[in-house]
């Protein structure tokens, strides 16, 4: 009888222990946030790098879109600020665009034309040389044009008013075409431009000229003072 009592008591103790253990387990507080398992540090770093990369790509893409916006050339605005020995020279917008159009049509060096005119007249359209033989923006000499028998004029240049800036510039462009074709000048080189400046000033063949004279030196220097406002 005592044995059964001991067995029953043992069973009761086991039951009580199991019940108490379950209660303790159920009542155990939830783990604190700091105790929650977190991903490995390498995964966190990789995620951060990816977020920065995505953000950087968005910034670069936005910047690229801004750079790709190219402003259309505005023919109501000047192409250059023009200077001569540091002094500003006023060149009307219409003249600047006419020079650009002539250079595009005849494939001429634009800056060299500015340098030549700055040297010859400082863009004063009605200037006459002291001896009365050269006229206008480019100081074109009618004397040796007659002797050169230039065939590149689109009309009889003698009917033109060389003190009119447009007539003067057109005549200059056609003279440059004539010199290029007659003497084989390469206007893409400085020496080719120098040869034209020599011919323009003297009317003589520039083929054997190997030096850059003072007249051409000034023209090149003035050309370098141009400040582009539109490309």
Q: Taking strands numbered 1, 2, ... along the chain, how are they ordered across the largest sheet? A: 2-1-5
The level of helicity is 40-55%
Could you list the spans in which at least 5 consecutive residues all have pLDDT below 50?
22-36, 62-70
Strand content: 5-15%
* Integer average pLDDT: 79
Structure characterization notes:
With 231 residues, the chain is mainly alpha-helical. Helix content is 55%, strand content 6%. The protein has a three-stranded antiparallel β-sheet with strand order 2-1-5, with no helix packed on it. It is globular and about 45 Å long.
What are the salient characteristics of this protein?
three-stranded antiparallel β-sheet; mainly alpha; two-stranded antiparallel ribbon; 8 helices; 231 residues
Secondary-structure map with pairings?
Elements: H1 2-27, H2 41-67, E1 80-84, E2 87-89, H3 93-106, H4 110-120, E3 134-135, E4 140-141, H5 142-148, H6 165-183, H7 190-202, H8 214-223, E5 227-228
Antiparallel strand pairs: 1-2, 1-5, 3-4
Short structural summary:
With 231 residues, the chain is mainly alpha-helical.
